[in-house]
């Protein structure tokens, strides 16, 4: 595990020796094993994509969807992306996994746009998460752009979700990559809004289409006055900037009603549906009585 040890030693500063206790060692061993399993799993088709509907609270219509990666490990069962995405990032696999999820989402979005799977599927835009690391190294967004062009997939069918930290660093490279995606019609969402540095100046500089209010604010919105105040402020600001809002992690009717009353019309959460496999998503759309 020399490579990994070296990496951590470097990360902790120059000319420093780092000694690992047995706990750290077994974590490194575990992570290395996971990178290995993940690479193998990706090749073996163990990674799949689920789709969570995003609902217009007032009409109940499904207007968008978020693509979320899933890993079915043959021994450990389903492993959460909050566990394996960070491992993919440090283990150098995030480009492969990210590209796989994007292509899969693009395929599904195209099929929904043709209503191929069901006569009443509607055509919700599908947004795909993109880690900061995916903007650096390799060829940036070029593979995504090329994939859309090669397969004649309209960018309007897709979106990209990024986090605040990425914009804060003020990299012209990031701005250029987002511009390339937007030029094709791909929407840009700012994910987990409110949990990062929330330096609001970048909202003006970067063209952001959607703000996703983080689940941590939505959770206690009914009981907690402070959370309600923060959400109200976010809504007021987004409105003035012409940015649409999506509330994450909506689990109760009370939360949805409160958000809608405050002016946040789109919601995503277990109240409506958890992330679903492609087929189940279509069944959910049909059951909701939507039509094209
Ligand atoms: P995220 O992008 O903020 O995605 C929303 C997360 O909230 C998802 O967790 C979703 O299942 C969960 N969620 C939705 N509604 C509710 C609710 O009502 N209650 C609760 N408690 N949770 C809800 P998930 O699928 O486990 O994904 C976790 C994170 O992993 C994502 O957070 C995203 O940051 C990352 N991720 C997932 N797929 C990908 C991917 O393909 N690429 C990258 N780079 N990151 C991904
Ligand atoms: Mg997201
Ligand atoms: Mg989120
Ligand atoms: Mg979140």
UniProtKB/TrEMBL annotation:
It comes from the Bacteria. Residues 31-289 form the EAL domain. GO terms for molecular function: catalytic activity. This is EAL domain-containing protein. It comes from Methylocystis heyeri. The chain holds residues 761 to 1052 of 1052 of the full protein.
